[in-house]
Amino acid sequence: MDLQLATEYPPPNEAEHIESLIRHLRAKMERDYAKTRMLRDAHPKMHGCVRGEFRILPDLPQELRVGLFKQSGVYPVWVRFSNQNGTVTPDSKPDIRGVALKLMGVEGEELVQGGPDEKTHDFILISDSRFVTKDVAEFDGLVTSLTGGQVQLIWYFLTHLRVLRNLLWSLRRFSNPLAIRYFSVAPYLFGKKAVKYSLTPRDPIEIPAPKNPSENFLREAMVSQLGSSDAVFDFAVQFQIDPYKMPIEDPGITWDESLSPFRKVASLTIPKQVFDTPDRREFGDNLSFNPWRCLPEHRPLGGISRARRIVYQALSQFRHENNQISPKEPAA
Ligand code: HEM
Asked: Kind and range of the H or E element at 224?
């Protein structure tokens, strides 16, 4: 098949795998949170939900002035740092770490629509440059095998060696969530082109890994850094320039930065602050992020994101209903 840039190629049976994913993940949440407040299915453990400023750089060249990045300006943002593991575990366990940004005051009609006065725009990134699986079928197979017993799981990995490699590679230890480089992994439209996103700490403060780490040492590292100094990140986009080496339908492949380097379009400043309070924890837990909560110029691309559109909405709704909370997007 001849592949084109910024073009999607949905495989048959994707919808069935999305349904199956929702069924399995819902059942897991019901089991895990039968007696307690329901947390997210993925990334349930939050290190901190902090406020910041997302600044679109002035004087961007014409090809970078697209959608949200058309005009320079500053958006207030909530930033939620998390561990990926489906259960809340000590931070010393190797894991994928996540960061989710919710910009406020963004004008324009988002793809996921809330009420008329909801003006939020989300970006979701993780600590690795590739996803574990290539598509929804492979991810559904992994989720099914994880709940199907040891023999099934070993067979799945023996027949999906790249998933095993990507998974082992991405499960890592870190000492400070504010010093990690994050990637969108999944591609997004950027006007008529396709890009991936990255968020790179500027002058990261590497806090040495504690000798006897407490369960929540990543939160403690954030409290320590933000108690005395700001954290600044560069937000950048990487253009797809080759549809084979930089595929849209396989987020399990890193787009080579020597082929197409990331280009800065914005900065994220998290000012010095006190954030670790019970109210803020509850606020962060009750937020919902969705890669589809974005302007149409930045629509997510590829099968994993087509699945996320349905899965995130269904499971966030399920979580909020269980907790008897009506979800509401925050305002600036
Ligand atoms: C089919 C594949 C995927 C499924 C089924 C899935 C599922 C989920 C679910 C159910 C949530 C919780 C949603 C909520 O209750 O509000 C979530 C959160 C999250 N996911 Fe995914 N995910 C997938 C792919 C990805 C990818 C490719 C990334 C890479 C950036 C990612 C990063 C995250 C992060 C960082 C969060 C936490 C957001 C927050 O702080 O609330 N996920 N995911």
From this structure: helix 217-228
With H, G, I as helix, E, B as strand and everything else as coil, classify residue 122.
strand
- β-pairing, 193-202 vs 231-239, is antiparallel
Domain that holds residue 128: 14-322
One-letter amino acid of 148: G
Cβ–Cβ under 8 Å, residues 101 and 297: no
316 lines ligand 1 (CB under 6 A): yes
Cβ pair 50, 233 in contact under 8 A: no
pLDDT digits (tens, 9 = 90+) for 56-82: 999 999 999 999 999 999 999 999 999
pLDDT digits (tens, 9 = 90+) for 186-207: 999 999 999 999 999 998 888 8
As a whole number, the mean pLDDT across the chain is 96
Number of domains in the chain: 1
Residue 60's domain is classified under what CATH number? 2.40.180.10
Whether 51 is covered by a domain: the verdict is yes
Q: How far is the CA of 326 from the centre of ligand 1 (A)?
A: 20
The token pair at 252 is 């399990």
CB-ligand 1 contact for 311 (6 Å cutoff): yes
Task: Answer whether residue 74 is part of any domain.
Answer: yes
Q: 42 C-alpha vs ligand 1 centroid, how far in Å?
A: 6
| Ligand 1 atom closest to 143 (CA) | 5
